[in-house]
Amino acid sequence: MPEETLLALDYGTKKIGVAIGNTLTRQARPLEVLVSSTRDQRFASLARLFDQWRPDRIVVGLPLALDGSEQYTSMRCRRFANQLRGRFGAVVELVDERGSSLEAQELLGTNEADDAMAAAVILQRYFDSLPA
Questions:
Q1: Could you please report the per-residue DSSP string of 99-118?
Q2: Could you give the count of Cα atoms lying within 13 Å of 106 in the half-sphere of its Cβ?
Q3: What whole-number distance in Å separates Cα of residue 122 and Cα of residue 125?
Q4: Longest CA pairwise span in the chain (Å)
């Protein structure tokens, strides 16, 4: 597999956690949290990140119910992933994000939400699922 740079997004309507990693090291790290009040601001911030990092692939956390079924936020997330494909021509992978915020809090040793760390957890799950 050729080396690829990946951005991971923990999507929310108010905040998007962002993480970065590559297929060579298979290590994810939190990057930043995008806070935007409008859709245009959100996509302008994403365009800046895409220009800066030139990712080969985007990993988006898919919110599922505890039993693995889809919910309203799953649909919104799938729509967001489709918008990324359309606007940026990006290859987008959806990854189950159940428990990623709790795992991020455990890693940070805090009860505060950290969307960038949750994005790193999601990306690490993706890397861990790749064949050796």
A1: THHHHHHHHHTSSS--HHHH
A2: 6
A3: 5
A4: 41
Burial group, residue 48, by CB count within 10 angstroms (0-12, 13-18, 19+): exposed
Q: What is the pTM of this model?
A: 0.91
Q: What is the pLDDT of residues 35-81, one digit of tens each?
A: 988 889 999 999 999 999 999 999 999 999 989 899 999 999 999 99
Contact between 31 and 19 under an 8 Å Cβ cutoff? The reply is yes
Burial class (CB in 10 A: 0-12, 13-18, 19+), 53: middle
CA distance 103 to 99: 6
Q: For residue 55, what are its two tokens?
A: 């990712």
- Which residue reads 């740079």 in tokens? 5
Ranges of each domain in the chain: 5-129
Residue 109's Cβ-side half-sphere holds a number of Cα atoms within 13 Å equal to 0
* Token pair in block for residue 5: 């740079």
Which DSSP state fits 130? S
Q: Are the C-beta atoms of residues 104 and 111 closer than 8 Å to each other?
A: no
- Give me the CATH topology for the region 5-129: Nucleotidyltransferase; domain 5 (3.30.420)
